[in-house]
């Protein structure tokens, strides 16, 4: 067990539990409350070399400068420095950014974000947050990140046998509603998945969670059930979101949902504050414990991706 | 205008229009603007504050011809859009930014924050002679 785990990176990062059933040889680790099957022992170690590791960052809010963080660009810089300092068994293949790159969709904010994020020297696949679509024509985001995408910026790509889908749920929002994918995008999604083998691992990423976390604060996507219905037949589906500036996880059937931390400021747990705004009185010297990045490893023969969240501190 | 610099554009223009002294104006703007607006029939102003992701008051009833001003008191940007685009959309409102729209046609106007659409409010515009 120790051998198959040694190169995994999970053990070193506060795995809560690790058990072996000798009878079946299935090794489980639990990180962040979600069990990850690491496959049949031995095979897990053998699969290391074929694995895929990528990073997720989210909610940079470059331009935000109010309590508790007077310098969101500075904490993004820290996050990227953290990414560069990560000692992983293999170099991440790329990074995804799950939106709210900027705070106010200003060109200078996107410029600043790009300058810092590019220091990671990784390809970055973006999806927009609502803060990236604030200029009237969504021009700054679309010109910069929208090349080769459909509609308001959705797209898919393949890496190491995993099919990645970037969705946009922050445009054409309706009064009283939450995030929204819209008919055009849903149609594209259904078409994109058509003909793919059910054994293809799928990773879906979008800004607002694709599961309803707290409708009172709009933390969900109105038509996500439709999207998830197209994903039902796939054996392994991982949904990565941002928006809520804290980690939440849920497993439903073959679908694992995970939200990432922000690199800018923490938001309250659902219903614990009058509004979802920044936790203004969060101690500045403790910010590094609530901001961070996630790295995700997919290994063949696994049911789920191993997602490891790292804070800026520790 | 150094005193007025710290107050919002809308407040400033309203106060300039009223021709008040700058020192008095700052106090009025901070404390008694809503009452002041109501007691000045010519001004025909309505104010909606955006605080804690909520429009206050949730429903505002005004006479036709009234200029309604939304002011964002949150640390997060908001934006005003009407259901069915019944009135013009605001630009994104950063902290302390304001948006004004003059309602000339009686009716019920439902609106929401286009950044956080779970935030909703209503403007009821009554005939001005009613």
Describe the structure in your own words.
The complex is a heterodimer of chains A (314) and B (130). Chain A is of the alpha/beta class. Chain A folds into two domains: 1-49; 51-311, Purple Acid Phosphatase, chain A, domain 2. Helices cover 19% and strands 23% of the residues of chain A. Chain A has seven helices and 14 strands. Chain A has helices spanning 2-6, 43-47, 72-85, 107-117, 139-145, 183-193, 224-231; strands spanning 17-21, 26-31, 34-40, 52-57, 95-97, 124-126, 155-159, 162-166, 202-205, 237-241, 249-252, 255-259, 292-298, 306-311. Chain A has a six-stranded mixed β-sheet with strand order 7-8-9-10-12-11, with no helix packed on it. A five-stranded mixed β-sheet of chain A has the order 6-5-4-13-14, covered by helices on one side. In chain A, strands 1-2-3 form a three-stranded antiparallel β-sheet, with no helix packed on it. In chain A, strand 4, helix 3 (72-85) and strand 5 form a beta-alpha-beta unit. In chain A, helix 6 (183-193) runs parallel beside helix 7. Chain A is globular. The two termini of chain A are 26 Å apart. The relative contact order of chain A is 0.18. Residues 1-49 of chain A have low confidence and may be disordered. Chain B is globular. Chain B is α/β, with parallel strands linked by helices. In chain B, 20% of the residues lie in helices and 35% in strands. Chain B contains three helices and eight strands. Chain B has a four-stranded mixed β-sheet with strand order 2-1-4-6. Chain B has a four-stranded mixed β-sheet with strand order 3-8-7-5, with no helix packed on it. Chain B starts with 8 loop residues before the first helix and ends with a strand. Chain B has two domains: 1-43, no CATH class; 44-130, Sandwich (Immunoglobulin-like), CATH 2.60.40.420. In chain B, a hairpin with a 2-residue loop joins strand 1 and strand 2 (54-56). Chains A and B meet through loops of A and strand 7 of B.
């Amino acid at each position: 067990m120790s051998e198959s785990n040694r190169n995994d990176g999970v053990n070193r990062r506060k795995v809560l539990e690790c058990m072996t059933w000798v009878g079946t040889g299935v090794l489980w680790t639990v990180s962040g409350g979600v069990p990850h099957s690491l496959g049949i022992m031995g095979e897990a170690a053998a699969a290391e070399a074929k694995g895929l590791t990528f990073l997720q960052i989210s909610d940079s809010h470059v331009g935000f400068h109010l309590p508790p963080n007077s310098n969101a660009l500075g904490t993004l810089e820290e996050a990227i420095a953290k990414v560069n300092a990560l000692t992983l068994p293999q170099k991440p293949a790329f990074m995804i950014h799950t939106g709210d790159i900027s705070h106010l969709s200003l060109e200078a904010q996107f410029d600043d974000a790009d300058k810092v994020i590019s220091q990671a020297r990784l390809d970055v696949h973006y999806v927009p947050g609502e803060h990236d679509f604030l200029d009237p024509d969504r021009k700054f985001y679309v010109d910069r990140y929208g090349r080769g995408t459909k509609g308001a910026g959705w797209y898919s790509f393949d890496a190491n046998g995993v099919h990645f889908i970037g969705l946009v749920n922050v445009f054409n929002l309706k009064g009283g509603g939450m995030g929204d994918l819209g008919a055009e995008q849903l149609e594209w999604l259904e078409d994109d998945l058509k003909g793919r083998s059910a054994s293809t691992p799928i990773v879906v990423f979008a800004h607002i969670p694709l599961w309803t976390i707290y409708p009172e604060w709009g933390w969900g996507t109105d038509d996500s059930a439709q999207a998830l219905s197209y994903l039902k037949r796939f054996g392994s589906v991982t949904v990565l979101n941002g928006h809520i500036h804290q980690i939440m996880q849920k497993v439903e059937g073959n679908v694992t949902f995970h939200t990432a931390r922000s690199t800018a400021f923490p938001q309250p747990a659902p219903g614990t504050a009058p509004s979802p705004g920044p936790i203004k009185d969060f101690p500045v010297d403790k910010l590094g414990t609530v901001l961070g990045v996630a790295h995700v490893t997919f290994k063949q023969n696994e049911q789920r991706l191993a997602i490891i969240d790292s804070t800026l501190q520790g | 205008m150094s005193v007025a610099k710290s107050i919002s554009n809308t407040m400033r223009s309203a106060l300039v229009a009223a021709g008040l002294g700058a020192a008095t104006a700052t106090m009025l703007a901070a404390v008694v603007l809503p009452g002041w607006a109501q007691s000045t029939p010519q001004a025909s102003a309505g104010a909606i504050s955006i605080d804690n992701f909520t429009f206050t008051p949730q429903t505002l009833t005004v006479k036709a011809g009234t200029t309604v001003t939304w002011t964002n008191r949150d640390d997060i940007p908001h934006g005003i859009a009407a259901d069915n685009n019944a009135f013009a959309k605001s630009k994104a409102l950063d902290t302390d930014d304001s948006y004004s729209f003059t309602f000339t046609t009686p009716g019920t106007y439902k609106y929401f924050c286009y950044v956080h659409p779970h935030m909703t409010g209503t403007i009821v515009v009554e005939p001005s002679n009613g």
